[in-house]
Amino acid sequence: MKELTVAATLENLSAVQDFIERELEQNDCPMKAIMQISIAVEEIYVNIAHYAYNPSVGKATIRCEVGGEPVHVTIQFMDSGTPFDPLAKKDADTTLSADERGIGGLGILMVKKSMDQVDYAYESGKNILTIRKELNK
């Protein structure tokens, strides 16, 4: 698994996206999957940058692996910030208007809908969010 560790700041979003996109392109991933994964990566990383260590700054580690049968990409996001399981919150009700729905929840819902698997664990003082997308769909 390839790995990148950065300070969890918004300024490092492009480095994280470049890292993931480079891995996907080197493995001939379909453009549709690259776009879906890029959006999910942005959503997850921005949330880490905004909330994991607020108001201080800590590290975020992103791991990426492409392979397996069927061919899939697995990406892990790890931070040592405040424990937070984004999957524990009830999905946003998209049938309600924005005013009725309230703030939050749409981003992780989008990630869950666009990926084949999304898992969260808190292990050894780290938040670990793992997304997986099959590439032959």
TrEMBL record:
Residues 7-133 form the Histidine kinase/HSP90-like ATPase domain. InterPro entries: Anti-sigma-factor_SerPK, HATPase_C_sf, HATPase_dom. It holds the Pfam family HATPase_c_2. The keyword ATP-binding applies. The keyword Transferase applies. This is ATP-binding protein. Keywords: ATP-binding, Kinase, Nucleotide-binding, Serine/threonine-protein kinase, Transferase. One of its GO terms (molecular function) is ATP binding. It comes from Qiania dongpingensis.
